[in-house]
Amino acid sequence: KLFFTDYGNAAKVERCDMDGMNRTWIVDSKIEQPTALALDLINKYVYWLDIYLESVEVVDYQGRRRQTISKGRQIRHLCGLAVFENYLYTINSDNFSILRINRYNGTDVQALARLDNAKEIRVYQKRTQAAVRSHACEVDPYGMPGGCSHICLLSSSYKARTCRCRTGFILGSDGRSCK
């Protein structure tokens, strides 16, 4: 799945398949300017910063069990969001400090370090890396991913795929080759 935020005409948090299909709103009320998003891949939670409402919130992948983690004026200065174990990590854009926030109750906020001009943060940890299994976009004997001449995108599961073409090309009637 692909998770993303939008704060154009109607602010929301959404998800879709990697090929853009099955687009679903998971948060579309009491949300104004979601600017950062982080996933708890193990427990299947979505965290986001709303700098207009000055809040950090969480829902499950279906948009249920919504909770506010933290609220207050300090939120409007945060950018980037990552989750690891019991904490959320973010950047304070005023002084570029990395903050650690307890993700269960919003307390225990700690400045860890400063970086020059940081805008985003990511945590890489072996447990959050999905085990690679056979999937529909594997390279075929002719060197084409998933049998697609340009781009292979996983669909609703790792067994299904959609072929797409680079800009300026059109997908052929076979659904795999680009012209």
TrEMBL record:
Q: Entry's PROSITE patterns?
A: LDLRB
Q: What Pfam families does the database record attribute to this sequence?
A: FXa_inhibition, Ldl_recept_b
Q: Which InterPro entries does the UniProt record give?
A: 6-blade_b-propeller_TolB-like, Cueball_EGF_LRP_Nidogen, LDLR_classB_rpt
Q: Where are the LDL-receptor class B repeats?
A: 1-43
Q: Which Gene Ontology CC terms are recorded?
A: plasma membrane
Q: Which GO terms describe its molecular function?
A: Wnt receptor activity; Wnt-protein binding
Q: Which GO terms describe its biological process?
A: canonical Wnt signaling pathway
**Name this polypeptide is given:** LRP1B protein
